[in-house]
Amino acid sequence: MPSLSDIVRESQIWKSVFRHPMPVDRRNRIVVMLTNFFLHLHPVSIKKQGIALSYTWCMGGVTFFLFLVETVTGVLLMFYYRPTVEWAYTDIQMLRDVHSLGIMREIHRWGAHAMVITVWLHMYRVFLTGSYKPPREFNWVVGVFLLLLTLLLSFTGYLLPWDQLAVWAITVGSNMARATPFLGHEGPGQQLLTLGGVDMITNASDARFALLGAREVGEETLNRFYILHCIAIPLAVALLLAIHFWRVRKDGGISGPL
Amino acid sequence: MTHGLTDAQFYEMVASFLGPFYVALAVMNGLAALYIWRTGQTRGWFSVPLPLVGKKIQITNAQIWLLVATVFAILGALAWSAGSAVAALSLPSLWRETINKSTGPVIYSVGTTLGLIVLYFFRSFFVRPAVAWWIWNLMWLFLGLSMTDRDFYEIVAKPDNVPIVMLVFLLAFFTWLGTSQAVENDRRAERGEPPREKVNDEKVLVWPDLVYTELICMIALTAFLIFWAIALQAPLEEPASSVKTPNPSKAPWYFLGLQEMLVYYDPWMAGVVLPSLIVAGLMAIPYIDFNKKGNGYYTIKDRKFSYAVFQFGFLEMWVTLIVLGTLLRGPNWNFFGPYEYWDAHKVEALNNVNLSEAIWNKLFNMSLPGTPALENWPVLLRPFGQFLGLLFGRELPGTLLVLGYFIALPPVMALTVFRKFYSRMGFIRFMVMANLLLFMAALPIKMVLRWVFNLKYLIAIPEYFFNF
Q1: Is residue B8 situated within a structural domain?
Q2: Would the pLDDT of A28 be above 80?
Q3: Which of B180, B238, B255 to mutate to test the interface with A (most CBs of A within 10 A)?
Q4: Do B77 and B107 lie in a common domain?
């Protein structure tokens, strides 16, 4: 008598999803890599040293996984959060005190801190093994963009709880922008940009204003950072991640001695 | 965070952390002993004579780590018993006083730099597993013994500062992991053997060899995150208020290296120009590193220069500045020792002077030259003229120094120390590298000038927000 698992695996539904038998022999272990959408990022076979943990530290993979964790927990948090000065703080308080999914906020926050650390460690490993050298120069550049976007993701998310910690950290951080050369209203060269004696760069038209959407961190800033945090930057990261992974394969797979 | 707690309540809170902490360290050392014993790496370290029996007993590394595990287990038991025992599990107060009094930005920055230099030159000693394991244990012990100090606890156990403590330990571990492989590969190269990564280059199927590793990593990481999320609540302070400015006001921790640079440079440099150059410089690395060796394996000898520059930039000028900015900078951005109370009324005399003041006032005993009026200039051009007038008038000494630094030094470098680099890199690539290096060095140079000469700005034109 066939076992239940045999019946399931012989069914038309199962076979329509997985187009090959279980990957227990060499042939099917190759086929699974080629036919599964999630696995096709990988090559079929790889040098043993290329997957040694002592070599890769697994930090690129960990960073990507953390990005996925942040996406899932972030979507759940969005159900409970309204980005307005009136509600933001209360909603976070409710996540802490009332909602059973409130632990998502802890996972999201600690995952974000961890992601900043792991992305640095990934870069550190790539540098120490000289893996940015030809032919992988451009992928290192893509990686630097991803590093920058990771920091910006964390920075924009820092504001959302709308508590003292959040608002003043963003105030201190964004105050730098008012000193941008030429484009900040307290930056060197600002006075040189005048039209008929009227300053072109003021505190209502400078780089900091573009960042905050206002003269001070306020309602507009919260809205702006929320959209950057939940939509704009994640989309950019997703695109760059696709390029980053694609280039790893196209540039000859994981690095190793020539 | 610990405000309003009596000493007894505070120690009880610390005990609930220190108990599991020391037990975990005991388990860690026990596992190390077990690993050494089971893999046959037991080595006799020294022998103890037994006069009564007339024999000698070999003490092995496994036994020592077992002993260390026992010590940690006892510490754990003491911590858990709570009460007055926890208070005893701390560094002697004389040590803490001494550490507080002897530390400052200068000692801290110079000390960490010297430490890194020592680690670099004696790396083959420090990567030995036994040595590294001692240091690893001591780092944890130092953390454990310090946690019973209220002021230390207050800073380190702040929820958003926990990642930095993790970062420090992770970096110590991974720097060891990378360096030990580099040292081994360099030894192999001396013997004429290929790097270790080359030996292990048989091919394996990704299923199951890689996908299962990934699965285990994901599960372990998820478990870790859930544990962290349960153990430590995310911070939520009072609702935002635009009138109550916290002191100190700090950016998120990963930007505190930049905030620390504000001590030495104005925001336009520390907050805009230097960060942009960090990003640009990182992107430029693959295009200015012309060394073809050291691709795809750990090594130091094959790429000493790029290794040293990166390590100095990352470990010293990025990470240790973050640690300084986060853990040791208190109210009014004053420096506080690790066991010092963050007193908002601490006053530090600021008597920094601009180079122009030093030259005109002190050296020539004159008053500062003023801004040129330029009354017959067109209005549109007047600011340009006045700015240039100040730059090459009142601020001439600093201007000459800075111009000399950025314009005269690169050719000098190309002709002297970097002669070989220049001939292999060509003009443009060399100029990019030289300028990036000079900007990178600008921070430590300014630090030293501040510490030694109380220099505020080399060029000070606050009229046009241009201070350098």
Answers
A1: yes
A2: yes
A3: B255
A4: no
Which structural domain, as residue segments, surrounds residue B42?
1-89
Q: What is the pLDDT of residue B83?
A: 66
B83: left (phi over 0), alpha (psi -120 to 50) or beta: left
What is the number of structural domains in chain B?
Answer: 3
Q: Which residues, at least 6 apart from B382, have a Cβ–Cβ distance to it below 8 Å?
A: B374
Closest CA to B164 of B323, B57, B309: B323
Do you know the residue count of chain A? 258
Per-residue pLDDT for B85 more than 80?
no
Q: Does residue B446 belong to any structural domain of this protein? A: yes
Q: Which two tokens stand for residue B206?
A: 């990704």
Helices (H) and strands (E) counted in chain B, each on its own, are 22, 5
- The answer to whether B252 faces chain A, any CB pair under 8 Å, is yes
Here the ipTM equals 0.94
Domain termination site, one of B89, B107, B134: B89
Q: Which pLDDT does position A203 carry in this prediction?
A: 86
Nearest residue of A to residue B176 by CA position?
A: A54
Both tokens of A172, joined, read 């201190």
User: Could you report the per-residue pLDDT of B142-191, keeping only the tens digit for each?
Assistant: 999 999 999 999 999 999 999 999 999 999 999 999 999 999 999 999 99
Is residue B370 located within the same domain as residue B461?
yes
A226 and chain B in contact, CB less than 8 A: no
Domains along the sequence of chain A with CATH: 1-45 (no CATH), 55-250 (1.20.810.10)
Q: How confident is the model at residue B338 (pLDDT cuts 50, 70, 90)?
A: very high
Strand, coil or helix: what is A73? Answer: helix
Q: Which of B206, B239, B271 sits opposite A176 (nearest CB)?
A: B271
Q: Read off the pLDDT of residues A34-84 as tens digits, 9 standing for 90 and up.
A: 999 999 999 999 999 889 999 999 999 999 999 999 999 999 999 999 999
Residue B239 lies in a domain: no
Domain boundary among B319, B344, B369: B344
- Smallest Cα distance from B111 to chain A, Å: 23
